[in-house]
Specification:
By secondary structure, the protein is of the alpha/beta class. The chain has 3 domains: 81 residues, Arc Repressor Mutant, subunit A; 93 residues, 3-Layer(aba) Sandwich (D-Maltodextrin-Binding Protein, domain 2), CATH 3.40.190.10; 98 residues, D-Maltodextrin-Binding Protein, domain 2. Helix content is 42%, strand content 17%. The chain is built from 12 helices and 12 strands. Helix 1 crosses helix 3 and helix 9 runs parallel beside helix 12. It is elongated, with a radius of gyration of 25 Å. The model has no long low-confidence stretch (mean pLDDT 86).
């Protein structure tokens, strides 16, 4: 029955008996017989097959998600048994925001796999907030304020924003002395979506509402805004974890004195403030491996996070106008 389910799901996904046979390393006739047996067992026609195409019937459409769930549960059960071994093994599916995933999660995962070479990780980097249940995601790294949910959340790091610009831009246009002065500068802004939380907001300024800054460059990708700022296009207001490398290298400089790093747990873990979290679903069979990865991420990022410590080390005098 399990082999028949695999054949059915693979044929549907690939749209071809021959392609499914190649992937399953079976003869086409064997795949066809497995599906015949499954249809006989169910008493319903799942696929309409011809020499040119495979069409899923209404019964097949209704059966398909259940077949996928059975195979997924079987894989998780196998993984749960394997976790009884001293050395963790098996597949973990992980998602992360695009820029944060590239800069920080991927290197952390590379380090994790060096420690645990029998584990495989399927990493998805996207700014889409994925449904962990629908996508079978074991661990999701999320940036921002977490909405209320049944997911188990682990705090990894705080987030704040840094107003910065290239030395060349500031040499041409001068240094803003206060947040209100930003209204007279070229500011690089987000276009085409809701601005990130805290974007162009400053405590004690404009009732903590976003300043109506303007500039001749707008973009829907903050990583692109970072590179535009480095090239001298204007002033940018980016997350600490995104701007850190450019600030440490001197490609960008903070426009205003940076806030001291929060070392107090209560301040760092205010649920109303944006932060980096790892979330997972309770009760999943991969929970042991998921917790292992989450602990590694927390250790790898550090407390305070390594990107904040790197900016702190460049020195307060370098971070402000002489």
């Amino acid at each position: 029955m399990i082999d028949a389910l695999k054949c059915f799901v693979t044929v549907v996904e690939l749209g071809s008996l021959s392609k499914a046979a190649v992937q399953l390393e079976m003869a086409v006739s064997s795949v066809s017989r497995k599906i015949d047996a499954l249809e006989q067992e169910l008493g319903a026609r799942l696929l309409l097959r011809s020499s040119r195409q495979v069409v899923v019937t209404d019964a097949g459409e209704r059966f398909l998600p259940r077949a996928r769930n059975v195979l997924a549960e079987l894989a998780e059960g196998r993984s749960a048994v394997q976790e009884l071994d001293t050395e963790p093994r098996g597949l973990l599916t992980v998602s992360a925001p695009a820029a944060f995933g590239r800069l920080h999660v991927a290197p952390a995962i590379a380090s994790f796999l060096q420690r645990h070479p029998l584990i495989e990780i399927d990493l998805h980097v996207s700014d889409e907030v994925v449904d962990l249940s629908a996508r079978r995601v074991d661990v999701a790294v999320r940036a921002g304020v977490l909405p209320a949910s049944d997911l188990v959340a682990t705090y990894l790091s705080g987030m704040n924003r840094v107003v910065s610009a290239s030395p060349a831009y500031l040499a041409r246009h001068g240094w803003p002395k206060s947040p209100e002065d930003l209204l007279q500068h070229q500011c690089l802004t987000v276009n085409g979506r809701v601005p990130p939380r805290g974007w162009w907001r400053f405590k004690g300024v404009n009732d903590y509402q976003p300043l109506p800054v303007k500039g001749n460059l707008r973009c829907d990708d903050t990583d692109s805004l970072l590179h535009a700022a480095i090239a001298g296009a204007g002033i940018v207001h980016l997350a600490n974890w995104l701007a850190s490398d450019a600030i440490v290298s001197g490609q960008l400089v903070p426009v205003f004195p940076m806030l001291p790093i929060a070392r107090d747990d209560a301040r760092r873990r205010d649920p109303n403030e944006p932060a980096i979290h790892a979330v997972h679903m309770p009760g999943r069979s991969n929970q042991g491996k998921a917790q292992l990865l989450i602990r590694h991420l927390k250790e790898y990022f550090g407390s305070p996070a390594y990107w904040d410590l790197a900016m702190e080390r460049v020195g307060a005098e370098r971070q402000r106008r002489p």
